[in-house]
Amino acid sequence: VEWVEIQRGLVIYICFFKGADEDLVPKIVNMLLNVKLSENESGEYVSVLDLPGDVLIIPQATLGGKAKGRKMQYHANIEKEKGLELYSQFVTVCEKELAANAKCMEAGVLVKHGTYGNRQVLKLDTNGPYTHLIEF
Amino acid sequence: VEWVEIQRGLVIYICFFKGADEDLVPKIVNMLLNVKLSENESGEYVSVLDLPGDVLIIPQATLGGKAKGRKMQYHANIEKEKGLELYSQFVTVCEKELAANAKCMEAGVLVKHGTYGNRQVLKLDTNGPYTHLIEF
């Protein structure tokens, strides 16, 4: 059993739909690392790169579910192999973006991630849940 | 400072958009309490009423945000007063539904909720995050 942990930062739940491709990955990463979702010491909202903060990436295919009657169906989700490929690229691009950011490097912030397609436990501790949905 | 806590069950993050009204509340509650999102001891998916499990309701207006450039905007969200009204009704209807369910009453399951419009801390512990988005 492996356990990853981040400190203050951004938790990303990611789900790929059918039709998603490699070109989309840098766009998503760029958006998520630059959108102002993190509160700094002065109470201003800044990006996780500007905070700077850690990033935890969680594969969450269930986000692609649609309720049909009392059951959830996942027909819109990408095929598992392609999803794994995009997920791995997503993690790699995030790592590169943080590594290319001087503020992040200086602060020693981390990118951690879950493994695709496996059940994983999660413990989350927030000082105000601040959940957003961003579609691409 | 008040702290509420649930055991095994369902965590609901709720956000009301402009145009939501009272008629919608029982429909949402009925759906969320009956959709099969909870894993029982045998690994089958059942509703939170059938589990039976606790319910934690968290007001989460940020879910209504849309990214505009690098900032989130919340123009689609309902006005604060109306949102509070619907949120209170939502909590009440959930409580009634659980109280009307023999299995839930026997098991002594709980409905707990956050307060609307205030910052609240959250600690979450899952045995596999299993996040779904259900729109009404």
Automatic annotation (TrEMBL), chains A, B:
Molecular function per GO: D-tyrosyl-tRNA(Tyr) deacylase activity
Xref: InterPro entries: Daa-tRNA_deacyls_DTD, DTD-like_sf
Compartment(s) of residence: Cytoplasm
Domain of life: Eukaryota
Pfam families: Tyr_Deacylase
Enzyme Commission number(s) of this protein: 3.1.1.96
Catalysed transformations (reactions): a D-aminoacyl-tRNA + H2O = a tRNA + a D-alpha-amino acid + H(+); glycyl-tRNA(Ala) + H2O = tRNA(Ala) + glycine + H(+)
Gene3D superfamilies to which the protein is assigned, alphabetical: D-tyrosyl-tRNA(Tyr) deacylase
CC terms in the record's Gene Ontology section: cytoplasm
Subunit: Homodimer.
PANTHER family the record matches: D-AMINOACYL-TRNA DEACYLASE 2 (PTHR10472:SF1), D-TYROSYL-TRNA TYR DEACYLASE (PTHR10472)
Protein name, UniProt field: D-aminoacyl-tRNA deacylase
Origin organism lineage: Eukaryota, Metazoa, Chordata, Craniata, Vertebrata
